[in-house]
Amino acid sequence: MPKPELDQRYSSPGARPPKWSEVEAVLVAAEMFWLSTVRGDGRPHVTPLPAIWYAGRLHIATGHGEQKAKNLAAQPHCVLTTGTDLMNSGLDVVVEGAATRVTDTETLNALAQLWKTKLNWDYRVGDGEFVMAGDVVAGVYGITPHKVLAFGKGEPFTQTRFRFESSE
């Protein structure tokens, strides 16, 4: 479990960092995230999409021809963010990490069930990927966190970093 590092410069006086369990609860409950990747020419690409927190990683599904899939194939480092649009309440979470394709049937079956339970999306598992209605296929990526930032909004304001073993 990562340890919190509260940044006093950007936190209210006397503030305490959130517990990892609170941050993880946001990752589990959130339906929408913003994925930031980098195109081959260095320009950023940002898109909203649902993600599933499972086994210590955020998971996304995307068609093989989509820009985000192309970007991740060339450069796996990415950022996923979630939170609220409110200034004085909530907890915004930023996950920095690297994406890898998920192809094992057991994990894909578990993720398909989570997508169904959380979002009522019907994915079938076939040949190392998700299959949707009309036989459209999607690759599944697991984003392993290197660093997670948590921004508590409202008194007390907090800015907390959680580092993972593979962090830079």
UniProtKB/TrEMBL annotation:
Keyword list, A-Z: Oxidoreductase
GO molecular function, one term: coenzyme F420 binding
One CC-aspect GO term: cytosol
Domain called Pyridoxamine 5'-phosphate oxidase N-terminal: residue spans: 22-121
Keyword flag Flavoprotein: no
Gene3D superfamilies, alphabetized: Electron Transport, Fmn-binding Protein, Chain A
InterPro entries registered for this protein in UniProt: F420H2_bilvrd_red/Heme_oxyg, Pyridox_Oxase_N, Split_barrel_FMN-bd
Claim: Membrane is one of the keywords in the record: no
Protein name, entry field: Pyridoxamine 5'-phosphate oxidase family protein
Organism from which the protein derives: Nocardia panacis
